[in-house]
Amino acid sequence: MESVNIKELNDRIQRESSFVDILTMEMNKVIVGQKHLVENLLIGLLANGHILLEGVPGLAKTLAINTLASSVDARFSRIQFTPDLLPADVIGTLIYSQKSEQFQIRKGPIFANFVLADEINRSPAKVQSALLEAMQERQVTIGDETFRLPEPFLVMATQNPIEQEGTYPLPEAQVDRFMLKVVVDYPKKEEERLIVRMNNTGEFPKASPVMTPEDIVRARSVVRDVYMDEKIERYIVDLVYATRTPQEYGLGSLSSLISYGGSPRASISLSMASKAYAFIKRRGYVIPEDVRAVCNEVLRHRIGLTYEAEAENVTTENIISEIINAVEVP
Predict the structure, then answer these.
(1) pLDDT < 70 stretches in the chain
(2) Of 34, 48, 32, whose CA–CA distance to 269 is shortest?
(3) What is the set of domains in the chain, with CATH numbers?
(4) What does the pLDDT look like over 61-99, one tens digit per residue?
(5) Residue 4's pLDDT is what?
(6) Helix axes 213-224, 264-280, angle to 10 degrees
(7) DSSP tag of 110
(8) What's the Cα-to-Cα distance from 165 to each of 43, 161, 169, 249, rounded to whole Å?
(9) pLDDT tens, 247-298?
(10) Which residue of 32, 204, 227, 240 shows the fewest CB atoms closer than 10 Å?
């Protein structure tokens, strides 16, 4: 691609991405700290990918996606996953009307732009698969009718990492449906002091709509236009391949720690998330730093650990760090 085209593309992306600052400011009015969470929500939204969140209760996970929905003037619904939940409670069902003497379709909470699936590992496999099918196909079948889900459609599922009793962990194949897995950490001391003060005074700022769902759909098509060089494409494939065959990259010590690596879906997600990250940074092209910035979130849930790794307290983050340091940067 000629440099003049890159310049034109860069100018266009800078114009088109001006809303990112406004949207971030609007969310920061409500959410104290958690910049990492807000940034990853925007990446998922712009890259058309769903997000799996892991963190202890009370870290503003629900508030974050609710605020995003308010800022985009979109429909938000929250589903609290429990062991007695049924697939019909998520996607909807047919209800018999005595008045009309026929079955009527009642749509479930999945029919929203932003869906929060709270504590997804609390419900049985049947309910999880109903949600994950809707995420993948972007449509729902009730009775003999199929309905398209609204655009944009973003699912943010949360997992509580501290309670494993009475939970149904998501199978690896289903976890792979999520583009990003974000680990939410505790706020800093100063941030927590501010949160306490806001709660004591009872002054809670509200997010105002600064965008429409149509703006998001339009922005997604612009994100796809962000330029990615062949060298960056090769770099992405190398990073994912290193999770499958680490010995080819001089990482033979990892072979006994990895039971399986990332699928081609990992490569696709890594490239789309890198483009979205470049867009958020107001750039019309992807650089290696963009790939490295999103690498942990994209690969964290796509690498299987062996018993040996667990015995040695090796985490997927340790493995990703080693891979990033070993794979040659273009």
Answers:
(1) 1-4, 162-167
(2) 48
(3) 20-199+208-215 (3.40.50.300), 226-326 (1.10.8.80)
(4) 778 888 888 888 888 898 998 888 888 888 888 888 888
(5) 45
(6) 110
(7) T
(8) 32, 11, 10, 39
(9) 888 888 888 888 888 889 999 999 999 999 999 998 888 999 999 999 999 9
(10) 204
C-alpha span between 318 and 184 (Å, rounded): 17
DSSP codes, 170-189: PPHHHHTT-SEEEE--PPPH
Query: Are 45 and 68 a contacting pair, CB within 8 Å?
Result: yes
Q: State how far the Cα of 284 lies from the Cα of 290, in Å rounded to an integer.
A: 12
DSSP readout, 14-34? HHHTTHHHHHHHHHHHHS-S-
Side-chain-side CA neighbours of 128 within 13 Å: the count stands at 23
Report whether 68 contacts 85 (CB < 8 A). no
3-class secondary-structure state, position 308: helix
Cis peptide before 109 (omega within 30 of 0): no
| SS3 label, residue 147 | strand
3-state secondary structure of 66: helix
Whether the model clears a pTM of 0.85, i.e. scores above it, the answer is yes
What is the secondary structure of 248-268 as a DSSP string? Answer: GGT-GGGTTTEEE---HHHHH
| Structure token digits, residue 23 | 């949207």
* Structure tokens belonging to residue 195: 């949160």
Q: Which of 137, 117, 131 shows the shortest CA–CA distance to 77? A: 117
How many residues does this entry show for the chain? Answer: 330
Tokens standing for residue 147: 């309905």
Q: What distance in Å separates the CA atoms of residue 150 and residue 217, rounded to the nearest whole number?
A: 11
pLDDT at position 188: 84
CA angle 11, 15, 20 (to 5 degrees): 125
